[in-house]
Design brief:
It comes from Winogradskyella echinorum. The chain is mainly alpha-helical and 108 residues long. Helices cover 68% and strands 0% of the residues. The protein is rod-shaped and about 105 Å long. The relative contact order is 0.04.
Length: 108
């Protein structure tokens, strides 16, 4: 009986306190709406918001490229710079600098 008279165990004799402690532990760790589950979901929400910002910026870049390609001048410039296209009576000379050839060698 001396074990139950210990001053540290005295608060645990109260049934309301025991029920409260069990309830809090259950809600924090074991329930379907637990704190751990919500913590994981908050991390997922942050990741998805980051992806949303990224894709919106990519969409803005694509819209800018579409507007540029919708004009004849932009289409011609893109064809010449990217695909090295030319008019039938033109000659194209591609000038490569030493630092650009070094980067290509490193990439291979």
């Amino acid at each position: 009986m001396a074990l139950f008279n210990n001053k540290y165990l005295k608060p645990f004799k109260n049934i309301y306190l025991l029920v409260l402690i069990v309830f809090v532990v259950w809600m924090l760790f074991f329930d379907a709406h637990s704190w751990l589950f919500h913590h994981e979901l908050n991390g997922d929400i942050k990741e998805l918001e980051y992806q949303k910002k990224h894709y919106k910026s990519e969409m803005a870049k694509d819209d800018k490229a579409i507007k540029e390609l919708s004009t004849d001048e932009g289409l011609e410039r893109t064809a010449r710079e990217t695909y090295y296209m030319k008019k039938p009576d033109e000659d194209i000379f591609i000038i490569e600098y030493q630092d650009s050839t070094d980067k290509q060698k490193k990439d291979e």
